Amino acid sequence: MGYWKNRMIEQQEQGWDFLDEDVHVCAECFDDEAIKQFIESNAEEKECFYCQASSEKAIAASMNEVLTIIGSAVKSEYTDPANELPREDGDWVFGGSIMYIDEVLEQLGWPTQNDEVAEAIREAFRGQSYVKRHFFSLSETEQLRFGWSDFVDAVKHRTRYLFTLPAKDDTELNHDEIPPHKMLDEIGAVIRNVGLVQEMKAGTKWFRVRIHNPAESFSTTSELGTVQREKAIYPNRMSPAGIPMFYGAADEPTAIAETYTPKKGQKAVATVATFETARDILVLDLTSPPPIPSPYDEDSRHLRHVIAFLKDFISELTHAIEKDGREHIEYVPTQIVTEYFRHVFRTPTAKSVKGILYRSSKNGNGVCCVLFFENENCCAAGTGWQLDENNCLGLTEVFRKNL
So what's the pLDDT on residue 324? Predict the structure, then answer.
């Protein structure tokens, strides 16, 4: 079999046509970071064919190798209509969903704004048509988003305590739908895949605030640490009434903003307490989810859908909730998620987490925590206080602040 025959077969299999082998492109002709990094790592020519940039060292990589990356990204989410769509009387069913390379790259994100390079990409993929892979199924992002939405509706309005059991109508779900009783495990899998469990070092400082009238005074761990069980009568974002947890903030302004609501004509004082962690612990860190990977990053693009869901999930988990009487309903999903991470979730090495970090809904980018420690786990930070395994948080400083 001759060279050109082999080349034609290869082009058919890969889904795009080769350019001249002498065509090289530099990183500056692309906007996508994954492609830029590839070019910088594989540069073999000193001049760019498109922008004519030149250097004494190699700055341009083969355009055909870059097209291989783009073709791989396209194939990861799109395929030939013949692989997905049925025909009726010779015409495609759902033919209006067929796309061409411009539309596909609009959805993936065009990797370049350079007109010449963009035209070269169009020319290489000209004549190819596409539809979404698994056309008749939900995408992974959609599965998770719809599953979470159904979970929220279920635990708020349909079944508060028995949602972990399969419902009778679960048998009617499509293969790509996630029923409420499976949603927590799906979220746990996302967290493990993305790697959001982090180590919090011993000695990490957290601020905790108690608001009161000027005549009152508080100074002990019993008064300033996690609320005592018998006094845990109000629901919070992460904990229902009756189940106390330690809430804190990484800085004083955030701790006050999370706790204090000014009331006209009423004076108030904040007693601010600082606590330190006794030892290293694992926590679920929701403060800085990773960016959605580039579709042209072959090593990370499999996480695109789960990270897209994760960002929406964290936003819903931490958004501000008005205390208008409905908060005890609005808190239910986050309380259940917290309980799952406290009692069920395990890391890939079978370890449990001791808390969750999240962004404040009251103070910009301030960081808050909920730690799974009760009042008896808080103590004064005296000499050797960390030696007692029951001591998890040590009170290091107390001061008053007029508000």
Answer: 76
Ranges of residues in the chain with a pLDDT under 70 are 1-4, 7, 168-173
The count of structural domains within the chain is 3
Question: Residue 171's pLDDT is what?
Answer: 65
Query: Are residues 257 and 396 part of one domain?
Result: yes
182 and 203 in a single domain? The answer is no
What is the pLDDT, as a whole number, of residue 275?
Answer: 98
Looking at the structure, do residues 106 and 234 belong to the same domain, yes or no?
A: no
pLDDT in the model for residue 117: 97
CA dist list (Å): 101 to 78, 87, 98, 138, 337 = 10, 22, 10, 22, 41
Same-domain check for residues 188 and 276: no
What is the rounded CA–CA span in Å between residue 333 and residue 321? 13
Sign of the Cα pseudo-torsion (214, 216, 219, 222, in order):
negative
- Buried b or exposed e, range 295-331, using 16+ CB within 10 angstroms: bbbeeebebbbbbbbbeebbeebbeeeeeeeeeeebb
In this structure, what token pair is assigned to residue 292? 């959605």
Residue ending a domain, choose from 175, 194, 213: 194
In the prediction, which pLDDT does 262 show?
A: 80
Considering only CA atoms, which of 202, 200, 237, 211 is closest in space to residue 360? 237
Question: How many residues are listed for the chain in this entry?
Answer: 403
Q: Phi first, then psi: what are they for 74, rounded to 5°?
A: -60, -50
Distance CA 287, CA 365 (A): 9
Same domain, 175 and 249: no
Q: pTM for this one?
A: 0.89
221: domain range?
Answer: 198-402
- In this structure, are residues 238 and 369 in contact, taking their beta carbons and an 8 Å threshold? no
Which candidate, 143, 220, 219, places its Cα nearest to that of 177? 143
Is 19 within 8 Å of 49 (Cβ atoms)? no
The gap from C-alpha 295 to its chain's centroid, in whole angstroms, comes to 17
**Within this chain, do residues 323 and 205 fall inside the same structural domain, yes or no?**
yes
Residues 224 and 260 in one domain: yes
For residues 163 and 229, state if they share a domain: no
Q: What kind and span of H or E run contains 305?
A: helix 304-318
